[in-house]
Amino acid sequence: MSDALLSLNGIHTHIGPYHILQGVDLEVPRGGVTVLLGRNGAGKTTTLRTIMGLWQASQGTIRFDGAAIQKETTPAIAQREIAFVPEDMGIFSDLTVHENMLLAARGGAIDEERLGWIFGLFPPLKTFWQSAAGNLSGGQKQMLAVARAIIEPRKLILIDEPTKGLAPAIINAMIAALKELKELKEMQTTILLVEQNFSMARAVGDTVAVMDDGRIVYSGDMAELAADTGLQERLMGLSLEAHQ
Amino acid sequence: MSNSLIKPRIERPSLSQIIEAKAPLFLVPVLMLIGLLAIGSGSTWLTLTAAGLAMGMMIFIMASGLTVIFGLMDVINFGHGAFISLGAFAGFTILGLLGGWIESPSIALNLGAVLLAVAFAMLVTGLAGYGFERLIVKPVYGQHLKQILVTMGGLVVTQQLIYVIWGPDEIVLARPAAFQGSFVVLGAAIEKYRVLAIVIGLALFVAMRLVLNRTRIGLLVRAGVQNGEMVEALGYPIKKLFLAVFMVGCALAGLGGVMWGMYQETISAHMGAEVMISVFIVVIIGGLGSIEGCFIGAMLVGLLTNYTGFLIPKLALVSTILLMGAVLMWRPQGLYPVVKAH
Amino acid sequence: MIVKLLSGDRPRSKMLSAVLLLILFGLLFAPFLFPGTRSLDTAARICIFIVLVASYDLLLGYTGVVSFAHTMFFGIGAYGTAIALVNMGASYSAIALGTVCGALVAGAFAFMIALFSLRVKAIFFAMMTLAVASAFLVLVSQLSGFTGGEDGLSYRIPREMTPAFKLVKEKVLGVRLNGKLITYYVVFFSSLCLFLVLLRMVNSPFGRVLQAIRENAFRAEAIGYKVVRYRSVATILSAVMAALAGSLMALWLRYTGPATTLSMDIMVDILLMVVIGGMGSMYGAVIGAVLFLLTQSYLQNLLGLLQESLGSLPIVSEVVSPERWLLWLGMLFICSIYWFPKGIVGRLRGT
């Protein structure tokens, strides 16, 4: 794929004494949703954090939109129009929902039209606009985390397990939101989504990569993987069943 | 989308939870009341209360920088006291040069001298803070043990440099004429300078709250205290922000140093390290990283020191330690624990 | 035999062994090698500070806990002995009782502090101990009826330990064999024993658990060690050792006051000695204490000479003024933390 927005080549990441990523090669094509699958501890979260510069890669290159970014600081990477929704959601709990969104809008002001669209996707955010974000429920916090990532146009959004620990109804809302986000083609947003929930992955993913033991062990179209149960079993084994 | 299931819902705090959350606000009036009962005489109490509030305000000015620095970057600067001394010396240098303004009966000239001294002290300590952060603090981010040791080393070196520049002796200087002496309110003698200290401290507290709650920088600081990593991931260079906050914190220590120096009318290279004891007690009582807690803690320590200083002079400092113990038994993280995201 | 005395903790470097042997013999024969009151005083202080600094290293270097209350424990030991000697007269039983009581009180204080604040962050513990130790200092300075206040306590010790007592009439090797000499050897051998006990502690299974906790408290807890309990015991042992060193100080000086035992300046000195000598090694305490106290006594002369030769330059001559020796040690301290965190011992061992 020559038109990759983001590509990782031979990325190694060490955390303390542990060698977590052992040569990750990953291509994220422009537009659409790429899903990163894999069991717990495979290195998915570390991959996202390495892209954001929150962990430093000890080896390899990361190219984004034509530039090598593996040596850049986290703020510099974020300023290249990359948004990050971490696993713990990274909500500022003492700040109000409004203030959380205000920080996410780097321009300093929130685009009212876009905010209206977000309120349509996640109604609770409108209701609790002036409440402390720490008082939101887990699902509402997740909505806020995603909303922060889309309040301004971004080229790439990294989302780490948005369905973790959420009730099925909220997962469905999340899927609907991501699908709608995807359909806004004029936004030219690319999403890299870490997921363990295969039904979510299948519902929103266009391409897919599967990780195991710090490497990418499979990558291809989501449709292919979804059709081939044998391949699914081989790649993800028990971890998949546990989530279905 | 099944809206019924994700209906907006938020837990309403119960009355007892509200009281529990607001309880620290009542501590200052309660302490004042206990003081009044223990002292008995209304006018003595009023004098002591004014003294206590003035002392509390000055400690708050010095402690506020320390607590915000900690909240933002998890850094405790054990060398903070050096900036208190440095500020006092820098300010006194200006006051010494403006001897004519200080002795003049004109309030405008008096105030002008004080303002110039304060401005110079804050400039010097702010710049020194820049050097201190780059040379001493930055190389040991995230390593608490080294941080404590190295900032302590910074304290020693800075104290020695003060000796090199200003000599080893204490400097004695009278306050500007307008702030000497006291006036009588309801039969109680109130020192004029204490009123000035209270006014400056209150103004600073209000200004800090406004900056923190109404400006974008303040928003970033508050967010950074909770989750610095996420602030970076949103595209803001938090290290620069931290450097700026560190410099402001040091400048505030300098301001506190000049004010404390004018209060005592004597300054020495060790004065900062001595005041730091109360400063540490205040930030522990308030909850590390919390400005509101710091403010309340400073008032409590100031008042208690003056009340016990009158009732049982020998136990003034020990009483604040006991207060700290009592607060920690009630709230192990201080009055207003700062919730960290990780 | 020697290895056993050292609890198997060899210096592991020829240079270090040579330096340590030099120090040992230097101190053992100090009264004969360096005659004069001032040098004997320096030698005795070195012995006492080696124990004080080593006991602090048990906490800082081996357990990874920063405390600023170490001089408080040192002072409690000194005041224990001093108060007993003042109130019971110059007797050996007063010394024994004062020493034991001092050590017990120090242990009890350490236990209370540990109970209160060891569960929380290192920073918290450091601030807390700083506040408590300062309050203690102020309290001692003010309770003058009991402690002598700012002036401290002067007292007499048993006659056999004073210069007035002559062992033999003639000088031996040019040195008078008097009670002062006896006191010096009491200090020397007590310090040596205490040091060997500390060495035994850190090389015991207990010491190894402490180091495991320092490296990774979370993992140590997961393996099943009660981290808080181990830290508390280390704090108490370190306090007791400091108190014993304090008792030796009280005996040697025949005077105990806030400035010689409790002041924050001494606390900073201890920190400098531990870090410059080498954290996490008992031998670091030896090297640090010797270097620091020699510098304190003799670097000033050197700087004085330097200042005379630079006399004309205003600021430069202030910087090398004899009173500014602490400036140089402070900078050395900061550099040690950055570039050689294992101190001089680490350098000598080539790690």
TrEMBL record, chain A:
It holds the Pfam family ABC_tran. PROSITE patterns: ABC_TRANSPORTER_1, ABC_TRANSPORTER_2. Keywords: Amino-acid transport, ATP-binding, Nucleotide-binding, Transport. Residues 6-238 form the ABC transporter domain. One of its GO terms (molecular function) is ATP binding. Belongs to the ABC transporter superfamily. PANTHER family: ABC TRANSPORTER ATP-BINDING PROTEIN, HIGH-AFFINITY BRANCHED-CHAIN AMINO ACID TRANSPORT ATP-BINDING PROTEIN LIVF. This is Amino acid/amide ABC transporter ATP-binding protein 2, HAAT family. The lineage of its organism: Bacteria, Pseudomonadati, Pseudomonadota, Alphaproteobacteria, Hyphomicrobiales.
Automatic annotation (TrEMBL), chain B:
Its main location: membrane. It is found in: Cell membrane. It comes from the Bacteria. Keywords: Amino-acid transport, Cell membrane, Membrane, Transmembrane, Transmembrane helix, Transport. The chain crosses the membrane at residues 21-39, 45-70, 82-102, 108-132, 144-166, 193-212, 241-263, 275-304, 311-330. Belongs to the binding-protein-dependent transport system permease family. LivHM subfamily. This is Amino acid/amide ABC transporter membrane protein 1, HAAT family. It comes from Pseudovibrio ascidiaceicola.
UniProtKB/TrEMBL annotation, chain C:
The chain crosses the membrane at residues 15-34, 68-87, 94-116, 122-140, 181-202, 233-254, 266-294, 325-341. Its main location: membrane. It comes from the Bacteria. The keyword Transmembrane applies. It is found in: Cell membrane. Keywords: Cell membrane, Membrane, Transmembrane, Transmembrane helix. It is a multi-pass membrane protein. This is Amino acid/amide ABC transporter membrane protein 2, HAAT family. It comes from Pseudovibrio ascidiaceicola.
